[in-house]
Design a protein that fits this description.
The complex is a heterodimer of chains A (132) and B (120).
Chain A: H1 3-33, H2 40-47, H3 50-70, H4 75-81, H5 84-95, H6 103-120
Chain B: H1 2-27, H2 35-46, H3 50-71, H4 74-80, H5 83-94, H6 102-119
Helix pairs in contact in B: 1-3, 1-5, 4-6, 5-6
The chains are: A mainly alpha (132), B mainly alpha (120).
Chain lengths: 132, 120
């Protein structure tokens, strides 16, 4: 495996992990608040609750890692391969949290993994870029 | 109302990613991942209008997603916004000039179907 491909998968792993954990924290935090978002003040207050704040911090790490990845990889490459986080969430839900995962969800995880593997086997970059 | 938020999320996410991809390609490959050099590289990128505009669009997408979660289940929000994968690939092909091979298209379609199946 080339150095570029290795670097791409390593940074993609950071992108996926930060996104899965960040969205989980956001979802948990918003569920605790309930559907009470009617004014701008409600939104601002939600941002400062612990779980939402942790979620936002993880999403900032996700953004930095994603920016780095986009500095050399195609957008049409990055978007599908980082979607593998959806499949990981299902797998983690089953093996770590003991959740019941339906055959439909397993089929979805398999499709995502197959699709990401297909995209991952294509060229990482198909356009020319500038120099730092 | 739910579909209006979905449309806002897809449009804002796609525009944000297209801007980020364009700006980062113009910057060139980031090779040094130590905190200082990485921070300087991102600061250099932030000096153009692309990054603030992309982050503003990302914020629109983020708050629209929060609003969607407040009125709809995650099992609706995630599959409905999975359209972003196909739309972004189309924009990458048309606006960024990326070569999207048949294999990449097939992979993207499989990923989109997989996200819908997982979240329904």
């Amino acid at each position: 495996m080339s150095t570029l491909r290795l670097k791409t998968w390593a940074v993609a792993a950071v992108v996926v992990t930060a996104n899965v954990l960040g969205n989980s924290c956001l979802s948990w935090g918003m569920k605790q608040r309930g559907p009470r978002l009617v004014s701008l003040l409600d939104y601002c207050a939600a941002v400062f609750t612990p779980w939402v704040a942790l979620g936002i911090s993880l999403l900032m790490l996700w953004l930095a890692a994603r920016l780095a990845l986009l500095s050399w990889a195609d957008l049409s490459f990055v978007v599908p391969i980082t979607a593998v986080g959806y499949a990981l969430a299902a797998v983690a839900g089953h093996f770590l949290l003991g959740e019941q995962v339906s055959p439909q969800r397993w089929a979805g995880a398999l499709l995502i993994t197959t699709g990401a593997a297909l995209v991952g086997s294509t060229s990482i970059r198909t356009t020319a870029g500038g120099d730092p | 109302m739910r579909w209006l938020w979905v449309a806002v999320i897809v449009a804002a996410t796609t525009s944000s990613d297209a801007l980020l991809a364009r700006r980062m390609k113009a910057h060139g490959e980031i090779r040094d991942f130590r905190l200082g050099p990485l921070g300087r590289a991102l600061a250099a990128v932030a000096r153009s209008w692309h990054l603030p505009a992309a982050i503003a669009l990302l914020a629109v997408s983020f708050f629209a997603f929060l609003a969607l979660l407040a009125i709809a289940d995650l099992s609706f929000a995630v599959p409905a916004t999975a359209a972003t994968f196909a739309v972004e690939t189309l924009v990458a092909r048309l606006a960024l000039g990326e070569h999207v091979s048949a294999r990449r298209w097939l992979g993207t379609v499989l990923v989109t179907c997989g996200v819908v199946l997982i979240a329904l």
